[in-house]
Amino acid sequence: IVSRDRLGELECSLEPGGCEEVVPLARRQALLRPRGGHGLVEVGTELRYRLTQNLQLAFFVDAGGVQERGTALEEFADAGEQWSWAVTPGVGIRVSTILGLIRLDGGFDSRGALRVPLLTEVEEGFLHLGTAEWAPYTRGDPGTLTELWRRLQFSVGVGQPF
């Protein structure tokens, strides 16, 4: 969702289909909101290797998909059922303490650029301006190491993940 005062930045006009091409979005030009979905699939697997009595190394792959049919913004989506998928491989360390298992995980976000409907709020609801592309990992034509760093996600947790 883009505010009307930013339409000039995106070279869009305030009319249906007001963006002639796919609009690349910068970090703060629009508000990205999950659209929800009609179906959900999640799968995860993990392989653990004991290094010492209290230290484990873990390799994992998590995957998930959301079916985009039946969302609140269905009128702006392409016809038919569409699934959006994400796969995240990663590695982690597990440390057994008196408080329980503490884990540090690093995952790699393998998704490409997201194409989403570009909307602005009007008195009657939302106006569909066109399609926007959000590519947070490749913005500004980064080098390989910068893009890799942007794709890494870290988490700390307590207890086994499953």
**Which secondary-structure class do the elements indicate?**
mainly beta
Strand content: over 45%
Cα end-to-end separation: 36 Å
Shape: elongated
Unreliable residue runs: none
The major β-sheet equals: 5 strands, antiparallel
Describe the strand arrangement of the main beta sheet, using strand numbers: 2-3-4-5-8
Architecture overview:
The model has no long low-confidence stretch (mean pLDDT 81). It contains 1 helix and 8 strands; from the N terminus they run βββββββαβ. Helix content is 5%, strand content 48%. The strands form 2 sheets. It has a 5-stranded antiparallel sheet with strand order 2-3-4-5-8. A 3-stranded mixed sheet has the order 1-7-6, with no helix packed on it. Strand 2 (39-50) and strand 3 (55-67) form a beta hairpin. With 162 residues, it is mostly beta strands. The protein has one helix at 144-151; strands spanning 23-25, 39-50, 55-67, 83-97, 100-108, 114-122, 125-134, 152-158.
Produce the secondary structure layout:
Layout: E1 23-25, E2 39-50, E3 55-67, E4 83-97, E5 100-108, E6 114-122, E7 125-134, H1 144-151, E8 152-158
Parallel strand pairs: 1-7
Antiparallel strand pairs: 2-3, 3-4, 4-5, 5-8, 6-7
